[in-house]
Write a structure and sequence with these properties.
By secondary structure, this protein is mainly α. About 75% of the residues lie in helices and about 0% in strands. Helix 1 (about 10-25) runs antiparallel to helix 2 and helix 2 runs antiparallel to helix 3.
Length: about 160
């Protein structure tokens, strides 16, 4: 078909439009564009990354609960598409969002899930030098998530 919307590159164009809007500070437009990406192209490989970017914008605005929901969505999509790097990053950001909300039990849950996932990866993935080593950071924040509530109670 000659319809532009059915082009193989339409999802790429929409994703890039959202990126441009995001980088121009047009947060609401970017979030709308990224949401439309999934609605129009549910199988696009860019959906998980789009939701990660939505989470980043919301996190930057200190909207941690909204960011966590976007990161959860990104993690779910990345897991389904077997995008290991994006899945790990989304889990990390999800844990960090929970930590920022002082929701330490959920922060622990997500950091542990990331650590377990990273530990399950095969030698091929570990040999990938571009791989982000979020495991160490997750261990650090896991420890802080376990200690923080005790520190907070000590100051009351």
């Amino acid at each position: 078909s000659s319809d532009v919307c059915s082009s193989d590159l339409s999802d790429v164009a929409m994703y890039l439009q959202g990126v441009c809007e995001s980088e121009s500070g047009e947060t609401e437009s970017a979030i709308a564009t990224f949401s439309q990406l999934e609605a129009h192209y549910p199988d696009s490989k860019f959906v998980a990354e789009a939701w990660l970017r939505v989470g980043e914008m919301q996190f930057a605005a200190a909207e941690y609960a909204d960011a966590a929901a976007a990161y959860q969505h990104a993690a779910d999509r990345a897991f389904k598409t077997k995008d290991r790097k994006l899945y790990s990053l989304a889990l990390y950001k999800l844990g960090w969002s929970m930590f920022q909300q002082h929701n330490y039990p959920d922060a622990v849950k997500w950091f542990l899930k990331l650590i377990e996932y990273e530990d399950q990866q095969d030698a091929t993935a570990k040999a990938d030098d571009k791989r982000i080593d979020l495991r160490k950071e997750a261990v650090d924040y896991l420890a802080k998530s376990l200690v923080e509530p005790k520190i907070g109670r000590a100051h009351v």
